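User: Predict the structure for this protein chain, please.
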Amino acid sequence: MDGELRNFYHREKGASPAVWVVSVLWILMAGTLRADQYGDFTYYDNGISITIERYATSAAGPAIIPESINGKPVTSIKSRAFEDCTPMTSVEIPPGVTMIQEWTFSGCTGLTTISIPSSITSISNFAFAGCTRLTGVNIPMGVTNLEPRAFFHCIKLASLSVDGANTNYSSWDGVLFNKSRTTLLLYPLDKSGVYVIPDGVTGIGDYAFNQCGGLTGITIPSGVTTIGNQAFQWCQSLATLDLPPSITSIGAEAFSGCTGLSSLTIPPGVTYIGNAAFGSCTSLADVTISTGVTSISNSMFLNCNKLTNITLPQGVTAIGNSAFQSCTKLAGITLPSSITSIGNSAFSYCTSLTNIHLPAGLSSIGSQIFANCTALTGVDIPHGIPYIGDYMFSYCSQLTQLTIPSTVTRLGYGPFSHCPLLTEIFFQGGAPLIAQYTFNYSDNVTVYYLPGTGAWGTTYADRPTSMVTEPLKIFQISKGLPQNGSQNFLARAGDGVPNIYKYAFNMIGNGPGQQPALEIPNNQRITLSGNAGLPLPGIHAEGGTRLQWTYIRRKASTSPGISYLVEFSDDLATDSWVANPSAEETVMDLEGSDFERVTVTDSVAHANRRFSRIRITLP
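Assistant: Here is the predicted structure, written as structure tokens:
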């Protein structure tokens, strides 16, 4: 026994014979795996075959890997063996090598051609990453596994060809497909212009067009059902996208970074859209998502900083984390009533967002949802929300007031921090449990609460409290209306029916008092002789104190089942509303339309206070 093994044995003295034998074998094998040099190649000899460990980075011109060294066959090439061999212009791989591993030829910026033998069965991701002068590659017959990022950032790659005997892959016009040409696998980076995907293709693979900066247009045939992960990522010249109705699935980051894309319509058949599918599409301004999609995935429109209009379908139940984060031009969005959850930072840094109505069915909310929404002035928080998430409204520098529903039982960390203009926060129920930093750097807040909602004390989270006693304010707080009266006529008062005003009062159109779309906020009352607009309250023209309403309503013959009822109350605190059967009503037909103008005058003159409202009931 030689000295090395004898000393090793003495160190392991006391070990079982089995352990001693295994240790000796390991030493003997390790003794043969020494690095040797063969020209510009560093290699390992395991006694049976040769592994190429490294090629000299200074070696210029062609590199011909030998078939054998010292009579032993070269069967493998180590990962990164040729990495950054920038003077190398071509490489010939010998038969017997079966795999090209990750990063093997990465960064070989002088490499223009490569000869791949039929013995190769697998080419891994990033095997040729950054080979920026490689123009063409032939895939031999033996390859059964070609990973989608094998030629990552090969910006001069113009054509891929496949040996006709290969049973897994094929090519057409330099583009790589599976054998049956039903899945498009790889479009070379140096191809440009408009590409028409051949009929018969049903799937676009992961990374298929990734970083194809010269792609200006794509025609996707009917029959394609899936678009893979990052399939068109960073196709910055892609300006238009027409998705066929056959599409059902769009993978994660499929179109992220497509900075030339300006509009998008998701067809009704799509049921799945992966995370960040359209993230950083910095020219995307208009998006319509059709019925079928039930979830707005994480980061779906992250950093789409020109997005101004998006239509979400009824049926969407969840908005994921950072879904609209940093959509800095998004001034408003209508959330369908089907939404039940909104994830972390969903609208954070939407610096143009001014007002948003959260749907009544919302039950789960994340943290920082509206953080840094510096134009936000109002949020309708629905009854049913159990808590306010961490930093939910932090750095909302224009927020002046909020109403917190009675279902909220706890507040997260810093939900109203850094809101310098926030002066009034109204709680419909008892005092929620708090964490820390509730009103940090929001120094002007007064906390208001309703009578009968428990013992609040003189301060709450280090801010002064005050019980509301004025009946009108009690009514507004209990209905979730802002106390400045800004939404008394401009928004629904807890009825949960979106856009009912526009529908009921002839406010859709291009005429006076009308708006061209449901999404545009109401902003104009009817005039005494007008044909459209919000109801006009007032006092009877003959004097006295009788309340009077003038409003537009749909004719019963054109919209059966809709009812309009003017109700009155003497005491808002009791929420008691009744119709006055003695009120005077006059009706003027608006000829040529589905509407009529109505004036209702109260028969009761009150010297003190009197309240009135219009109740609209849908069938």
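Residues 500-617 form a domain with the Immunoglobulin-like fold (CATH 2.60.40.10).
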